[in-house]
Design brief:
By secondary structure, the protein is an alpha/beta fold. The chain has 2 domains: 191 residues, Glycogen Phosphorylase B (Rossmann fold, 3-Layer(aba) Sandwich); 141 residues, Rossmann fold (3-Layer(aba) Sandwich). Helix content is 30%, strand content 19%. It has 10 helices and 13 strands. The strands form 2 sheets. It has a 7-stranded parallel β-sheet with strand order 3-2-1-4-5-6-7, sandwiched between helices. Strand 4, helix 3 and strand 5 form a beta-alpha-beta unit. It starts with a strand and ends in a 7-residue tail after the last helix.
Amino acid sequence: MPCNVAFYIHHHGAGHLMRSIAIAEQLTDCSVTFLGSHLRKHQSLIPDGIQWIDLPMDTAQTKDIHYQPGPDVGCLHYAPLAVSGLSKRMAMLTQFLASSEPLILVVDVSVEVTLLARLLGIPTLVIRQHGYRTDLAHRTAYESAQLLIAPYPDWMSDPQETWMEKKTFYSGGFSRFTSLAKPLTEEVIPRQVAVLLGQGGNSFNESILLKLADQCPDYQFHVLGILPYEEATDKQNLVFHGRVDHPLPVLMRSEIVIGNAGHNTVMEMADLEKKFICIAEERPFAEQQHKASFLRAKSLAITISAADLPTTHWPTVLAEAQELNPVNWEGTINPGALTDLALAIKEQWNLMYAYDFKVS
């Protein structure tokens, strides 16, 4: 029986999609489908051979005139009332899941989708995230999963999470650069700095970029990503690249990288062994602060709270970053992580579907 795998991909930022693509590319002998909102917008990134279903957004629109948040439900994170997009997406998910059995669903990430799949009898593999996730909703979703996948090394696991250990598979870290041959022709340029603006929202606004350029005139800053608007500037040391689908050449040339503590950004920095200035953005469950604490403890990055950006003295921060030792990243990335993950998914498929259960 051929392996049939679907990925539910959360729409916030680009990290969940990039991670799903990296894993799915290893499932060459499986049928793979992506499910999520905004997939059409990113269809150029999705490899040929992967089917995808673009789901409606689940947030209230002006036409949802009866929308209400509804009473709190401890085992759910998000379940508003009278939102047509939410009703349609759950109906589409239900129809797909019910008509695609046998199926394994990899959830990256959603408590509600995990529980929907379990209620429909579809086994789930759930991606673990950093942050403090001991709330009832996370515990319920994690308990319902066949397997929890931690896309990072076990030293990045919090002692509070020991209750999850028996069903967690630690793949070690990986990124979209793990399986690529790094371009040997790209030599590091001293005092070139890449600034990554995450698609999930960031605090690095125009005024902070201008302050960065003013305070550090002997550095060259390359800004990758989209700002709400860009101030007209004649600063020769500040270059705006906009959205870049393939940032590897700029990253390879940069001596230092500034970016947030999103999971994919951190793993990309580990993969490229970069001197990293890490901005911990405000996220649910203190996810980025949690991850930044691990980096700080291992001297892997200079960490700054997003709230402290307006008062940051950048010459001092860049001087501290110069002293970081990229060798410290050793043990963060597992070069075989994606292969190991593909094998773990197929093992769960075999455990579930390799035999026929006979009712006596």
